Each structure stands twice: as C-alpha cells, then as structure tokens.
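User: Reviewer 2 asked us to show a designed sequence for the structure in our supplementary figure. I'm pasting the structure tokens here. Could you produce the per-position amino acids so we can include them in the response letter?
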C-alpha cells in the first residue's frame, strides 16, 4: 500500500508592476500595481498498489500490476490588489483602486494505472514486454471568487523597500469594509480527463567475436494518449444594486503578511455569495463576454501518439566496452481548440473551432565508450543526439486573458521540437564501502530551443498588454561540468556507521540569440541555472532513515522579453529540507517530511533589477503511514 498522507502549505506573495511617468522633464518608472496574495492549502493523498507475479519456469516470469491514487486539495486564497491610476509627484499616488478578493477552490485528482508484462527466452533470444493503461481524472467542482472594490484613494508612497512598497493613505480608514462594493460574482467548474496506453517490447541476443563478448538488442514502443479539458467560467452580474463587503466578511486575517510588511484583513467569504446566488438566481444575469473569453480558449480536446524503434549493440573486450545504436521516433499531435473573436468594443462575436495537427520525427544515434582501468574505476565518453518535444498544452491554440493584470497567455501551434547533439566525458570511482565519486564535463549544441517569451502587444485590443507564449529560439550552446560525492560512512565506529553524505555541484555556461526590438541579443538559456548544488547528511540504522538536505542555485532567467530590461530573472536561493521514516513493524512504517525549514523566499526581478514578484511559501510538510501487505 502506498502512503496515506496529509500535508499543509501556505504562501505569501507580493507582485509588482511598473509604468513610465514624467515630472519636470525627468522620466520615472513607478509602481503601477501591487498584488499581495496569500493562501492556505490542505492536501490529502491515499495510494494503493497491488501486484501478481507468475513464474512458469526458470527463464520466464509474468506480472500484473495495478496502482490507484486519490488526491484532494482545498485552498483558501485571499488577495489585496492596489491599482494606481496616476501620480501627482514621484511619491504621491492618486486615483488608487483597492480590490479585496476571496477565493475558495478545491482539486480532485484520481489516477489509475494497470500494466501487464513479462520476460521469457525463445531459443537464444531474451524477450521482455509491457502493456500499460493509465487514466487520470481532474475535477474542480468548487471555485467561488468574489472581489470588492474601493476607488478614488490617494497615498504618499514609501519606496525605501522596493520589495515591499508602502502606502501611507490620506484617508482615515482605507480598508473600511462598508466602503467596498461589487455587483458581480464568479464561479467556475474545471474538468480534465486523460487516457493513456502504451506497449513496449525488447529483444536481446548475445554473441562473441574472438575474445570479445557482445549483445545486440532491438525494440520498440508505441504510445497513444487522449486528453479532454473543459473549463467553464461564469460571471454573474446583479441586475440592480450592489453587495457591500461588510455583509460578507470572512474571519481570515494575516497580520504578518510577507515578513510583517503588510497587515491583511477584511476579506470576502466567497461561499456566502455562492449561497446567495443559489437562493436568488433571478436577481442575476450572466456576462457572456466574460464567459466566452475565459471558457472557450482554455477548453480543448485531442490525441497524441509516439512511435519509436531502436537497434543497438554492446561489445566488451577486457577493460573496454562500446555501445552504439540508433533510435527513430515519430510523435503526432491532433488537437482542437477555440479561437474567440470580439469586436472593437470588446463584445463577443463568435467562437471558431481551430484544429492543430503536428508531426515530429527524427533519427537519434548514440555512441558510448567505457574504459575500466580497475574494477572500481570507469572512464566514459558519449556522443548522442536527443530531442525535447513541446507539450501538447503549449501546442493547443488556446488563449487566457487576465484583464486585471493586462496580461495574455497563449498556446503556439507553430512550435517545433528541439534537438541537441551532446558530448560527455565522465570519470567515476566506487569506494570499497558503499559510495562513489564522479565528475563529468559536457557540451550541448541545441537547435530550436523551447522557452517562454514575454512581449508587449502592439495595436488591437491588447495594445500595451503583456503577452506570454512558448516559442522556439535559434541555435543554442551549453557547456559545463558536474562533480558528485556519495558515501555511506560504514568505517565509523558504533552508531556513527549509519551516517552517510551526498554532495553534488553543477556549473553551466550557456548562450543563444533572441530577437530584440532593434537587433538580436545574446543571452543565457532561460531556465538554465548556471550554478546548482545539493548537500545532504543521512542516517540509517535501527529501522530509522533520515536525511537533512540543502539545495541551492544561482540567479537565472525565467522569461525573455523584447528588451533586456523587461526580462524576468529568478534570484538565487537555498532551501533546507528534512525527511525521516521509522519502521514500526515488518509491514508498517511512519514518515515525516518538512520542506523549506528556513522559509527561504522565491524572488523574481526584471532585467533592470526592479523587484517583480516575491513569494514566501513558509515551511510545509507531510506526515503519513506506509503499509505493505507482504
């Protein structure tokens, strides 16, 4: 039986956006909006495994396996957004609108996996095969969202801490709930269903050439996947009148938000508006523009397949070993999404189904050489060609419009697969006790690198908006090295011989060219962290297993814009985690995991250094039991 576990998690987030202003002939880039966002999450997860094995003879075995997993999550998300209309001076903000928002949402995920397979020998040929079917169901029946607004506020701005700007309001009580109103309410229902089937088969036969011992191996894989996603948004407008926040208050408050920089309270209890809607449906009318804008672009249905075949051979002579082969892969996508059209005034016109079909294929050869000067030491060299396919979601012609943030997220049916030629040289040495030390240097040459691009819309209904889309880049390169050390310290005396240590470090230098407004520019690869490392100390003895780990990385680019100043970078950080389990009996064990013990934040900045998004995820953990029936 897989573990039954419960975990809790929270987040403090502060997101900033900026606009250009001019005072007395001097240009300023000042805060235009501030989004303080926090939530609490409770998660429950239960899994069950079953397996049946059959051994008809010494060379054959067959199995049937089944796995089921049930996951449930409930979130209470609260948000306060400051939108600044204008400035009368570089430190005096006018026409400020504050939005107090409350949102209840849940997630139900059920995954079932059934597989059957085995291995056998037919004369001199060893054969293995596997047939697997999986079904994933996602359902979000609860999504209640209410936003109350107060306008025409003014404040003296304090930018001494740009990660947490402060508003010193001219009004006596800017958060008085009796001054916040709304005439609308949002609910939605999201569903997604996946069916996935795949078959894999491999055949292997040994041979000899003189003193050299070898084997030839061939096989194939076919996978077929069906995906159906339905997103249903509904905006209900009151036919007349308004709701007043003071009548729908929740008891949630967070007086130490974002490391004591903000005091949050007076949020709406969205479930109360859901109850009011259900009791009085005749007092509302649905907003078709909102529903079509948010529902149709993010609802799609489609299939994808993957077919692959390979042949390889391995030859070993004394201290040398060579493995070479070639693999052919073909992937196909066929998805139907929706294009939603509006007139110049933003009124809904129609929804047109859009079909996207795409096929990727290629040959991927590889050569691996190994030299073993001693029984515990290996030197390896490899030259390979690999690929990275865009996800089906990125290929679907969908569009998500975030009006409050003046932001559009889009799919890209024109994406191509990325391919890479890889060169690796590796050294590894195994200790007499359990453990090893290793190092590798590598170089990669990548075509059509896939990355997230952020641009500014020009003309049309999204003029000046931020538009995010996954795109292909030009040829890119990456090179670097990695070192690792892992060892169980069994040579230590007494109880200390249960200690173990693991450490690794990776350095990557990368670059490629991206288009800019006036010319191309050379940048580091997005999502490629230049420095990454792990250090952990473990202990295993008396049925106990525990690990204290630190993970760290350096600043890296997450999104590229049309100018360097608007790129988004995630600042380097380190995180400390702890996990432990204790065997209670032969069949039963309990475990505990705590992540981010020091509450290390995640901070994103623009390319020119201005703070963009800062998040404190707090520490989170899970506790559970694991039971094995055999």
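Assistant: Here is a per-position design you can include in the supplement:
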């Amino acid at each position: 039986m897989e573990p039954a576990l419960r975990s809790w998690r929270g987040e403090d987030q502060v997101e900033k956006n900026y606009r250009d202003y001019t005072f007395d002939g001097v240009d300023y880039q000042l805060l235009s909006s501030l989004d303080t966002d926090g939530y609490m999450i409770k998660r429950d997860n239960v899994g069950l495994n079953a397996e049946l094995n059959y051994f008809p003879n010494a060379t054959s075995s067959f199995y049937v396996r089944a796995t089921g997993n049930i996951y449930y999550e409930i979130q209470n998300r609260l948000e306060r957004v400051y939108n600044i209309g204008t400035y009368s001076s570089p430190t005096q903000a006018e026409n400020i609108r504050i939005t107090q928002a409350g949102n209840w949402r849940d997630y139900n995920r059920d995954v079932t996996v059934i597989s059957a397979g085995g291995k056998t020998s037919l004369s001199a040929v060893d054969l293995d095969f596997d047939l697997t079917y999986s079904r994933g169901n996602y359902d979000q029946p609860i999504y209640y969202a209410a936003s109350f607004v107060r306008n025409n506020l003014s404040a003296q701005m304090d930018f001494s801490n740009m990660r947490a700007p402060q508003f010193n309001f001219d009004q006596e009580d800017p958060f008085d709930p009796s001054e916040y109103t709304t005439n609308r309410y949002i609910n939605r229902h999201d569903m997604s269903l996946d069916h996935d089937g795949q078959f894999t088969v491999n055949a292997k036969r040994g041979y000899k050439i003189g003193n050299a011992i070898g084997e030839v191996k061939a096989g194939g894989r076919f996978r077929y996947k069906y995906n159906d996603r339905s997103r249903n948004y509904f905006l209900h407008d009151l036919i007349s009148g308004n709701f007043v926040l003071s009548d729908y208050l929740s008891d949630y408050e967070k007086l130490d938000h974002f490391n004591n920089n903000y005091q949050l309270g007076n949020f709406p209890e969205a479930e109360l508006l859901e109850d009011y809607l259900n009791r009085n449906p005749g007092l509302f009318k649905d907003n078709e523009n909102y529903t079509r804008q948010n529902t149709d672009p993010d609802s799609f249905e489609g299939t994808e397949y993957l077919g692959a075949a390979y042949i390889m051979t391995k030859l070993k002579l004394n201290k040398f070993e060579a493995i070479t082969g070639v693999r052919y892969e073909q992937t196909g996508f066929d998805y139907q999404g929706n294009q939603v059209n509006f007139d110049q005034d933003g009124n809904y016109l129609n929804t047109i189904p859009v079909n996207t079909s795409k096929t990727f294929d290629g040959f991927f050869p590889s050569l691996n050489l190994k030299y073993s000067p001693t029984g515990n030491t290996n030197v390896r060299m490899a030259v390979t060609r690999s690929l990275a396919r865009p996800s089906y979601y990125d290929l679907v012609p969908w569009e998500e419009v975030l009006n409050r943030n003046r932001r559009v997220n889009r799919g890209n049916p024109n994406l191509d697969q990325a391919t890479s030629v890889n060169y690796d040289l590796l050294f590894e040495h195994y200790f007499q006790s359990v453990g090893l030390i290793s190092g590798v240097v590598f170089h990669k040459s990548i075509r059509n690198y896939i990355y997230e691009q952020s641009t500014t819309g020009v003309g049309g209904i999204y003029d000046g908006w931020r538009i995010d889309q996954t795109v292909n880049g030009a040829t890119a390169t990456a090179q670097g090295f990695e070192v690792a050390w892992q060892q169980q310290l069994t040579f230590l005396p007494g109880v200390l011989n249960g200690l173990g240590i693991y450490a690794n470090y990776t350095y990557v230098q990368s670059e490629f060219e991206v288009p800019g407004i006036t010319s191309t520019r050379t940048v580091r690869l997005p999502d490629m962290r230049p420095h990454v490392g792990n250090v952990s100390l473990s202990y295993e003895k008396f049925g106990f297993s525990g690990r204290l780990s630190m993970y760290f990385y350096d600043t890296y680019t997450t999104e590229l814009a049309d100018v360097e100043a608007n790129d988004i970078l995630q600042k380097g950080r380190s995180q400390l985690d702890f996990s432990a389990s204790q065997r209670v009996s032969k069949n039963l064990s309990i475990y505990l995991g705590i992540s981010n013990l020091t509450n290390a934040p995640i901070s994103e900045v623009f390319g020119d250094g201005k703070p963009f998004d800062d998040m404190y995820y707090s520490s989170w953990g899970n506790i559970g039991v694991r039971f094995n029936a055999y």
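For the response letter, you might also mention the following. The chain has a mean pLDDT of 90. Residues 84 and 96 are 5 Å apart (CA to CA).
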